[in-house]
Write a structure and sequence with these properties.
Elements lengths: L2 H15 L8 H12 L32 H4 L7 H9 L1 H4 L12 H14 L3
């Protein structure tokens, strides 16, 4: 086997291991957020759902001015790439008993929304 095949094989394995959210488009994520999330959320104000500025890296249920379900408050979840992706796929599967019913079905849409939330959280 040639060295180039070994290198290409190693590169393919490495790229496969890089999470999809590493390639998120925060600008597209902003547009998706504004079209899909804004009905219940805002970056800076609590609405039906809690405010999202600073959500990345924050413990679930930690916005003091928002009344969370006990499931979210007691979940121990910290919002990062993985937990946000899992939440957007199926909130009930990540935190049974929570109140959000909305899902983001397309992987690239989730990736872009996470990139936007990460950016708006200063990460």
């Amino acid at each position: 086997m040639s060295l180039s095949r070994v290198v290409l094989g190693a590169l393919a394995v490495t790229l496969a291991a890089v999470p999809a959210y590493a390639n998120g488009d925060a600008e597209r994520g902003r547009d998706l957020y504004e079209s899909r999330c804004i009905g219940c959320h805002s970056l800076d104000a609590n609405r039906i759902g809690p405010k999202h500025r600073g959500v990345y890296g924050r413990k679930a249920g930690a916005v003091e001015e928002f009344t969370y379900s006990s499931a979210v408050k007691n979940s121990g979840v910290v919002w990062d790439d993985d937990t946000l992706a899992r939440w957007l796929v199926n909130p009930q599967a990540l935190i049974p008993g929570q109140r959000m019913n909305f899902r983001v079905s397309l992987p690239q849409d989730r990736t872009d929304i996470i990139a936007y939330l990460k950016k708006e959280s200063g990460r």
